[in-house]
Amino acid sequence: xxxxxxxxxxxxxxxxxxxxxxxxxxxxxxxxxxxxxxxxxxxxxxxxxxxxxxxxxxxxxxxxxxxxxxxxxxxxxxxxxxxxxxxxxxxxxxxxxxxxxxxxxxxxxxxxxxxxxxxxxxxxxxxxxxxxxxxxxxxxxxxxxxxxxxxxxxxxxxxxxxxxxxxxxxxxxxxxxxxxxxxxxxxx
Length: 188
Ligand SMILES: [Zn+2]
Ligand SMILES: [Zn+2]
Fold this sequence. Notes:
Layout: E1 8-12, H1 18-32, E2 36-38, E3 49-50, E4 55-57, H2 58-68, E5 75-80, E6 84-85, E7 94-96, E8 102-106, H3 123-138, H4 157-162, H5 169-185
One zinc ion is lined by residues 133, 137, 143, 153.
């Protein structure tokens, strides 16, 4: 078995640039205080394909990720290239299990140019922000009204570029409380 105690697993699905995986690992690791490890957990996600929408249902992928995650890993963040959706929305940049184990992002919509004509942020910066956002949900954080906070809900790529990669004061406190709770319940 792969030893991954106290790690965040970064799980590429399909052809993901290894440098992107490493960057997302470094950034999420720094945000949450866990080292990250790149480990592909799913070979393909055909099981989540919806032939009518021609998109992939992210909730189904999350369930599989949570099942296949090494038991000792803290959280899993998958990086996909396919277009993701949940039934109530046209598309999503990512999804996560609130207070659960797994999150996923896709680079599919993160390649868009900003609609405002602003300078396009790099794919790796956008991917890292969305990965931190989704992992924030796995640490029980909900959407934040603060526009610059990483937990702000983004409707467009402009929103993604506008927010910072950091937590606002309120979200940081909530996250640290959850971290303390987890470390108290963790087996020694
Ligand atoms: Zn969210
Ligand atoms: Zn916030």
